[in-house]
Design goal:
Layout: H1 2-14, E1 52-56, H2 62-69, E2 73-78, H3 81-91, E3 97-101, H4 104-110, E4 115-121, H5 124-127, H6 130-140, E5 141-151, H7 177-186, E6 190-197, E7 207-213
Parallel strand pairs: 1-2, 1-4, 2-3, 4-5
Antiparallel strand pairs: 5-7, 6-7
The chain binds S-adenosylmethionine.
Length: about 210
């Protein structure tokens, strides 16, 4: 786990901060995809105001900050301490928004609260064995609570020169929409949708967005 944390600390140190405003002029927004000003918004979650929301792997907290401004009570966790510092520095003034340094499975296994929504945007759902993580997410959700996550679609043809996955500190679970649907059903989720969203013009890679209910 130390090697994994160190890898995410290096990632955090190398990231440039998100813009202060998006193309629509907003200073907070929720972005499920790897492209700016693209993809669905918070409506994927359903009702936001008054909801208790957990984001796994929240990074610098920009997506969660948006939900806080819409009236949600938000908790963001991230394995990298640097991300919590950045998130608190940028969004510490917002109400009902807190950040913690924690590993996703450890947090879920030890945290007594229930959540109305759990999110992971290119976060730990992509980097954690789903047979461990999904049951923990399921048990942390209120009845009818929603679980929404996104990541890049599985790459069928690895690029030449791409390092072998086994050689990396961080593992990745590149499941297809069909595989996620089956895994989520096995973990007792219902109303599961899993789709690859088209990329914006000029880009080739879509985004896998998965939604399920407890
Ligand atoms: C690709 S970044 C995405 C950050 C953010 N969700 C966003 O969209 O900007 C992945 C984040 O997940 C965090 N992370 C990865 N594995 C984790 C784990 N097992 N538990 C908690 N956080 C994790 C990393 O530290 C990193 O901040």
């Amino acid at each position: 786990m130390e090697a994994v944390t160190a890898a995410w600390e290096r990632y955090a140190a190398g990231r440039t901060p998100r813009r202060t405003h998006n193309a629509a002029g907003a200073n907070t927004w929720l972005n499920w995809t790897q492209y700016a000003d693209h993809g669905p918004d918070e409506s994927l979650i359903g009702k936001v105001e008054g909801r208790h929301v957990l984001e796994l792997g929240c990074g610098t907290g920009c997506n969660l900050a948006h939900l806080s401004t819409l009236g949600a009570q938000c908790v963001g966790i991230d394995i990298a301490p640097t991300q919590r510092k950045k998130a608190e520095s940028r969004w510490g003034h917002l109400p009902n928004l807190s950040f913690q340094t924690a590993e996703a499975t450890e947090f879920l296994a030890t945290h007594p609260d229930s959540f109305d929504a759990v999110l992971s945007i290119f976060g730990p759902v992509w980097f954690t064995d789903p047979t461990m993580l999904l049951p923990l997410v399921r048990q942390s959700l209120t009845d009818g609570g929603v679980f929404v996550f996104s990541h890049k679609p599985p790459q069928l043809d690895p690029q030449p020169g791409e390092p072998l996955r086994e050689a990396r500190a961080v593992s990745r679970w590149d499941h297809s929409p069909r595989e996620w649907t089956s895994l989520l059903a096995s973990a007792r989720f219902t109303n599961i949708t899993a789709d690859v969203i088209d990329p914006p013009d000029g880009k080739h890679e879509g985004t896998l967005v998965v939604r399920a209910e407890a």
